[in-house]
Records
---
Amino acid sequence: MIEELARLARRDGPVTVLKQARVLVVRVGDVVVKAHPPDTDERALRARLDAARKLPGIMLAPLGLERLDGRLVTLWPAGEALTLADVDAGTTPWEQGGRLLARLHARPVTAGLPPAGGPSRLRRAVADLAAAGVPDPVAAPILAAYASLPPHGDDGARGHDEDGALTHGDWHLGQIVRHDGEWLLIDPDDLGVGDPAWDLARPAAWYAAGLLGPREWERFLTAYLAAGGTAVSADDPWRELDAPARALTVQLAATAVATAAKAGEAPDEVAQALLSACERIVAVTRAAT
């Protein structure tokens, strides 16, 4: 399928496989071609692509939508991904990420846009634990933390009422690229109406698990609030972040241990840190009841 995707790019040059998992992503010259999962909802994807086109200066706009062997395929201008030097520099990626999210959350919701995909990603990650054959002692703290989540930590309640905002749905540093000299968000696959705090929840979960330093976290959060971000309160951001951050901790832990199990490996240090965070979630919940 890689060769067929490359032909859709209508470019000459070497073909580079950027990702091969639930999605297949290849780059040919200055075009990136992405084959979406076979069960992708075409109507929802088209709505998300249309919304991305209406967000200049915030999101990278798609070049087109094709079909190949029953799968939906999107074409994109190739952006310049973050490098280790960018991340090590500290200020640029985290601050730019905060500013872009603040601008995204301030934009009006496009009519017909589906719910943001964050909560469904959580459910899928937990379901993958059983499919990956994760041993019960390893899966136990994840499942217990999942069971302890409040309802809006799982079903994205704010995403289904009039208070829902335009939300990326799967934000992390890998969702930022440079294109034509500006930083932009990419990957609208989970773009939709939801609780914008979910877009801050992944770095919040990393921070709570000790995987993101306080300096980086403060730069990200400060930039978000300074740019007018409304997902969290300036005086107590954890009031809105606590439940989504717990949910993302569960999702990240489930994904990490399932990936290790599929590879026949033990959970690495990152997975262990997330497992410990799940244990703390369970302990705090029990202490509060």
Note: The domain at 2-77 is CATH 3.30.200.20 (Phosphorylase Kinase; domain 1).
---
Amino acid sequence: MTDVQVGLSGIAGLLALIALRVPIAIAMIAVGAAGLTVLIGFGPTTGLLRSLPYEFAANWALSSLPTFLVMGYVAYHAQLTQGLFRAAKLWLSALPGGLAIATVFGAAAFSALSGSSVACAAAMGKIAVPEMRRNGYSVRLATGTVAAAGTLGPLIPPSILMILYGIFIQQSISKLFLAGLAVGLMTAAAYVVTIVLWATLHPAAAPRLVEKASRAERLAALRETAPSIVLVVLVFGGLFSGLFTASEAGALGAALAVAMGFLRRSLDWKTLRLALEESLSTTCVILLIAIGANLLVRFLAVSGTDQAISEWVIAVDPSRLGFFAIITVLYMVLGMFLEPVGIMLLTIPILYPVLVSLDINLIWFGAILVKFLEIGMLTPPVGLNVFVIRSVVGDMADTWTIFKGVAPFIVADMFVIGATMAWPDLVLFFVRLVE
């Protein structure tokens, strides 16, 4: 058996383990270790297993991962984002589907503090779905909007997926954040258009609000968003202006979120401990998956499988259009069964040589990749955001109803994907402003 055949056998074994519901981190570590043992021997492999986890985890760029997680969890538990939906509701309620549009804007603002699709969907679901139902909105529109709006979390910075991608591909995290922001804003705009069309074609699904908010009420609602706005401006203003690095931005954001929570008396020591525990747990899970992916990268590189797959893909269709068609199918299928971090770290080692061969902008691809991964959060049978909303709303809606509710938003997502592929400059607009 040649080295490439060993590598391909390892990939087949990895897919089999994933199909058997083995955690993806364990599956990648097992396959990587077994493959390297076959190729280079037991002794060198055990030496690599001793050194690789520390070498990877000691990467200074990774320090931004737990700090941004702390900022997001503290902002969530301290209810620093509580006024975002109320402000959006009062200012946008006159539009067709105004409450649903307010949900999208509220989710976009929440995303600037959280970076988590699941957290964004859960937070907005608790607030927005009951409000929309109280005002006569259909269950499909209410739940579908919130589930879809949650996918803005990893697109609008801070994004844990962008941080991991930047570390693996060795690209600027700040530039990736800016590219993600562009795609996030395009997605939000596409969702708003979808809601307006839905409300216009089916007025009964989104009744117009009769009550009118006064100017004083609207201004008061805006003042409630001040903590969130100050936090976002200080953290990301400093990051994008080059005043400090991503790691420093995360640390500042976490410290400010804790300070604001205590000053507003919406955060106590018990809640802070809960936020820290959740941040620690999430960090450990992500690092374990990342270490497994790193080991898999070594295995594929030693076997030459990554280069062989790259040559095969280019031989099948050497054009960019052909490659885009392949990755669209790949990520849509994987997104039906796996979670985003696992998909990204599983596919990057295989796709990277192809990206380099086709001279594809890696910042642009990072933003598109995260967009694909977030579509997977909506597609059956394992659409995590759908199941989060199902748990939040209880008996208000069944899972199939929510999946039907997100279907129009998935169509909108595909239009966004098409636009970003046809006009890459849309994604890189903010990046080029700071270059």
Note: The CA atoms of residues 62 and 164 lie 8 Å apart.
---
Amino acid sequence: MSVLDDLKMIHTRDAQDALGIAERQWEFLLQDFGVALSPDKSIENVVLAGMGGSALPGQFINSWPGLSVPFEISRNYDIPAYVNEKTLFISSSYSGNTEESLNAIEQAKAKGAKIIVIAAGGKLAELAKDGAYPYFAIPGGIQPRMSTFYFLVAFTQIFEELGLAKEGSLAELREAAQWLNGESRKWLPTVPAEQNQAKKIAQDIVGKNIVVYSGPKLFPAANKWKICFNENAKNIAWCNQYPELNHNEFLGWTSHPIEKPYAVVEIRSNLEHPRIQKRFEATEKLLSGKRPSPEIISAEGDSTLKQLLWAATLGDFTSLYLSLLNGLNPTPVDLIEKFKKELG
């Protein structure tokens, strides 16, 4: 029996029930924020200011449903120079106290941008109240990286109601939630490792530095895998996407022996551009014997949205099982908290 089939061990190490949160994530896609917006034809561009798990859901929007105006994610203290009164500025922070986000929103206010706040509380919630900005209150009590789907619902509602995303986007997201519920049950702790894709992947990559690759459509999910490996499993990981990696990183695999301390994970989609799909195959052929054989994951679902949700959720479960194999509780991020105190 695999150690990952030991439910007593899982319960002991996963003291805050992160696996239970992963199981319930599909429900987050049904969240009703109780905020109503009206179409605004004066908006010429959108800037989302956020860090880490509070910015990540914005990448999903670029893949699905896409916006009708330029959209930039700003992970910085400063905001783009073009921000003005025709900019929709979304300040996104789970804690509501992220210092980069607080600095950025003050700059957006000074430039007269149209501001919306998404947070679970903190100083940003207070700023929203003081400035009478639309405020989407994210439910608290979990880690920011576990709240991705809450943010995705908020972003989707905002962009659809303001007339920046296609009509019916929120309904499509709600429908996909029900489908995801059935899919994610395949990765629960009660499903044995021999039948559980998430457990199998974790067992294959344990003890390695992890590199996650995907095409552009599913790169938001690949980036979520990277973040969750870092924060859940406390495991170093990187990510990159085709076709960019073929122009540089591709060669980085060629100068050292195959016995590298890496695991390569590739998230592939049948919905990517045909040339992207061919790049996966050609890269695998040309790097055979020069890098570890990739762990190939073929995303399930008949739409970009479903494949994104499916791949992201599989990554959550995989990273949580990897944490348990690493002998760790996946929830705490003590070093990040210490770092914030160091910054004062």
Note: The chain has a mean pLDDT of 96.
---
Amino acid sequence: MRVAGVMSGTSLDGIDVAIVDIRGHRIKTVAFNSSPYPESVRQEILSVSNATTTTASIARLHFLLGELYAAAIIAACRRHRIALHGIELVGCHGQTIYHQGEPEPYLGCSIATTLQIGEAGVIAERIAAPVISDFRTRDVAAGGKGAPLVPYVDYLLFRHQRLGRVALNIGGIANVTALPPGASSSQVIAFDTGPGNMIIDGLATEVTRGREHFDRDGRIAARGRPASQLLDRLLADPYYRRKPPKTAGREQYGAKFIGLMKRSGLGLRDLMATATAFTAVTIAVGVERFIKPRMPVDELIVSGGGVHNRTMMGYLSSFLPSVRITTSEEFGVGVDAKEGVAFALLAYETWCGRAANLPSATGAHRPVILGKITQ
């Protein structure tokens, strides 16, 4: 089956489309394309994320994103000369505008909350293929945090009989999937370690007044020095001591967090260096504190936009000196395409009627079939 996986993450850098051929659990990436968000759309998403807004704004954006996702699939097909009618299924994560993975009391209930927008009906109409969307809610309903969901795919792609591997994705948020040697799915450990590129991107946008949205190759951070006192203060957050399963999002590392860092009085270079080191050290803390006591860690397999940040990758190597660090490219999965590929495979599992959450990763009471089908 040929499946298009669509992912737009918390970094808001654009819409990634991976077109994948799936035969059983054999996966071949046929094409990958990324379509940047128009700046006006990016700002509108930010305005409704973890913010007081109007239902009209969310509703309009919900349908607009459906159109943009469909257009991104069409663009990927055109760029790689793939027939649109050959797309048999679409898996679309949608754009997260709110995620509170920890249950909170509300009207006599204890509920976790998640909301992804991007109307699947629009995509199905434009692409003329069934769409699987809204992957997180069923896991939440089953007592889980609705994240992380990619560990199921990491388990299929990267587990090894003799080696202990950790799959790390550095998107807006950084998350890890720990795969003990010869692991069964119930033995997988997975959680969000904390920020990925989100703080770095936010600082770049703020300080350059929108001229830049990220630190290309980590060049700005490379010219600065991490501020140890600020790092210590940031690491005092109880999140980094909380046992998995756990999940993080923009509500933790958004505008309020950026404001806290700017109030430190550091210059741009030192701010970037501190934010970059903070992402790397929280990843290392997660590995050292929650993974190494339970399994050997032989390899760290990195994907996501953070791979392109040389300064961050350098920090990772220094914080985890005994671990071989490589990327998903070594395993035939592009570092930028990884999450698009993941949601293509998750959609395929749903279409086949198979559960694809890992309760050991999300905290759900049981495995469930993810997503909603729009035909």
Note: The longest strand covers residues 95-106.
